[in-house]
Amino acid sequence: MSARLALLLAAVLALCACRHKEITKLERDEAANAASEADFAVTVKEWSRAEGLFARAAALCPDTGDYWLNLGLVRMRLGNRDGARTAYKSALGAYKDAADLDPANSKAVIRRIYVLVVLGRADEARSVLDKARAKTPADRLLRSFSENDGLSKMIADPGLKSVSP
Description:
Order of helices and strands: HHHHHHHHHH
Structural class: mainly alpha
Oligomer: single chain
Number of strands: 0
Largest sheet: none
């Protein structure tokens, strides 16, 4: 009986430790600075430097999908398909969490759709769009995206192949 109690106690402690760490303002500022520097590195085509800076920004603020998305894009430039896929999957989670926290955050929904398309999951992207439209039918951005066939345009984009792992 005491072995079961010890196992239960260990499981409870492990679950408590899984709680997300609160990101401080200082960490957010530091991540924003790293991302800004990475953006500059991209403009001068210093891909390795940009990768390190985006990775640092994403590590500091793992809830910011744009850092993960940019990290994936840079890794594709470097030919690191597996690393890009991992970064894109992290971006998916961050965008989903952002949309769940704020259902009116339609930009997070559209970015999540984009990442799904990049990962070759167009049917899932369509489902995400339909669910978001049903949840917030008055959202102008989502309505415009849907009515202008934004998803089909994303899928047909010839540049998509260069960023898809």
